Amino acid sequence: MGEGIAYAAGTVVNAISAKKGCAYALDLTVSVRAELSDSTEIHTDVEDTSLVERCVEVVGEHVGQELNFEIEVDSEIPIAMGLASSSAVSNAVVEALLKELGREPEPFEVVRLGVEASIRAGVTVTGAYDDACASYLGGLVLTLNDQHRVLDIRELPYPYAVILLPGGKVETSEVDVNRLELLAPAAETAFRRAMTGDYRGAMLINSAVYCSALGHEFEPVVEALEAGAAAAGLSGTGPAFVALCETKSDVREVSEVWSDRGEVLETRTVGPERARGAQARNRPHR
């Protein structure tokens, strides 16, 4: 039986506007078990199984066979909240399928196939290459999404994270891309900040423009910073916000100040363990 695992991802810079993204891994997981079968059966709490079906299709094309699997998907990641739940599912499913076929997946191979499945399933605007890389490789990634290119993979300096789920859902595939592309100059500025390691500044710029364009409140970001978060911002297209913290005391303070805004989750960030063994270098993946 093949098994796969991938993580949620939070946002430093959303890639929709300028096609340049910065994202980091969060310790909420999708776990997948897959076994070859006479017909494809998918066991999951999600009604729409099209993403998993596209993963089977893409992996079959990759190995040159028409395949069927029995697949079990178990996810801790809230759906349509801006936490890369789709990227995590596609990564974990692809890894499980390849392992069931007796292959030891190369990390960038998993990401590339998962992105293709996500595009075919229509669950992403850009392919979400930044989210996909963070979700599978771990750490913090800086990417050129339109080129499927990783510029850098880093250790995030903040070990703790607080996630605010204020209610409602946003399907990324339904956002107005043309409207968000108008934000490109601000997104470019945020990305330059991220490249220099100023994640706090990058998240502030990114969140200010995306909250304005998408109709989300910006106040949760300010509240988290006032409570001691090292950095905070809107994740994806929302509605989730993530605060990054240096100490458990800061986690408690942020959780308390956000408690009347919705559901609050406390977790950790994830280091780039897979990336260390993946020869993460500047190269396109077509």
UniProtKB/TrEMBL annotation:
Keywords noted in UniProt: Amino-acid biosynthesis, Aromatic amino acid biosynthesis, ATP-binding, Cytoplasm, Kinase, Nucleotide-binding, Transferase
Cellular component GO terms held in the UniProt record: cytoplasm
EC class (word): transferase
Reaction catalyzed: shikimate + ATP = 3-phosphoshikimate + ADP + H(+)
Pathway(s) the chain acts in: Metabolic intermediate biosynthesis; chorismate biosynthesis; chorismate from D-erythrose 4-phosphate and phosphoenolpyruvate: step 5/7
Domain named GHMP kinase C-terminal: residues: 206-262
EC numbers: 2.7.1.71
Family matches, as Gene3D superfamilies: 3.30.230.10, GHMP kinase, C-terminal domain
GO BP of this protein: amino acid biosynthetic process; aromatic amino acid family biosynthetic process; chorismate biosynthetic process
InterPro entries: GHMP_kinase_C_dom, GHMP_kinase_C_sf, GHMP_kinase_N_dom, Ribosomal_Su5_D2-typ_SF, Ribsml_uS5_D2-typ_fold_subgr, SK_arc
Statement: the UniProt record of this protein carries the keyword Manganese: no
Stretches assigned to the GHMP kinase N-terminal domain: 51-139
GO molecular function list: ATP binding; shikimate kinase activity
Subcellular location: Cytoplasm
Binding residue positions for ATP: 78-88
Family according to the record: Belongs to the GHMP kinase family. Archaeal shikimate kinase subfamily.
Record's protein name: Shikimate kinase
